[in-house]
Amino acid sequence: MDLPGVPNALLDALRAASRELGCAHLAFVGGVVRDGLLHRRHGVAWRGVPDLDLVVEGDARQLALALQRICGSERLTACREHGSFGTVELCLDGVLLDLATARRESYPAPGENPVVQPGTLQADLVRRDFSINAMAFDLISGELIDPHGGQRALQKRSLELLHPGSISDDPTRVVRAARYAARLDFHLADDSLEQLRQTMERWPWRWSTGDAREKAPPALSTRLRMELDRLLQREPWAEALSLLQSWSAMALVDPALQDDLPWRQRLTGACRLRVPLLPALLLGAADPLEVAKRLDLPGQQTKVLGQCRDLLAWLPEHAPPPGAPPSQWCRALEGSGWSAEAVVLAVCHRPAEWRLLLRWWGRWRHVRSPLTAAELIDAGWSPGPGLGAELSRLRLQRIDQEGR
Prior knowledge:
53% of the residues lie in helices and 11% in strands. By secondary structure, the chain is of the alpha+beta class. β3 and β4 form a beta hairpin.
């Protein structure tokens, strides 16, 4: 199986290291196998992959050490071990490799992090999401391993879950389904779509006995945020989010987002203004700040989202009246302490005053006094609060003179 851009010398080194350790299997897995088959057999353009995923039946760390002995530091320029996950990140001949010990996993409860143990290559493939991602190319035997009909699914352009409890085990697979469907122009198989619908009908589940509140475990919430970030940063997000809404799956994030119609306008505006897309999406939630905290958004994004929520609530009652000069808007916005990031995020939401908010963000806040503090002191002003007030007055005067 040819992989464009992957040097033969790299493959030879991997085979030599696996033979030295007597590994039964060393195989490419996941997206690189899927995309390689799409390229070779179905005429899909090869777009490359950011890294190559390999699974070894044996010890990934020992294989990495064998590669270091065989290749030396000139070829193997980076090696980082993640002991708790049984994985090693390598850079060999300029190619990034993720090397993992074959493992099997079980889910103690729906949505919880799985319990992971060493396993076989076959067991490692079983734990994956869709049949198109559950194929392996064994570098030792040269065999394409396809126990779940991945090649057939590629031919049908179909996303097929591997087992009936797949989404219950890990609901983030729904987001991955939308990502792959949008990127590859695939469709969700009928039985997989039915599993999705049945699982969503039970969402959210009660996660602990005696707890009256229904909320997902923290591990699931964090994984969900990570999948949404990947969708919004790397994929055709408009198509993917449309699919999630058509599957009634936006409730995984927040039920209000299922009926949120302006999301496309918000996110299109966010793209143009270079605003992070996930906070813009969450503006359609019933309580954006609560959802942000549950998903464990970065602290700065959560802070901005909270300020934006407060700003949007402030506008109907406290915004300057129609026809107010720009200086009045500057005093109101700057006196309330909202950050520029919160104001531009509010612009994406398109309140009635969005154009004025945009002018403050894009123009007015950058205007400076025509005279500097040094020039005012030379003119007889003394340092102190009065000097600051005069600088502010001159700045606001200039803003009004320059107009809207």
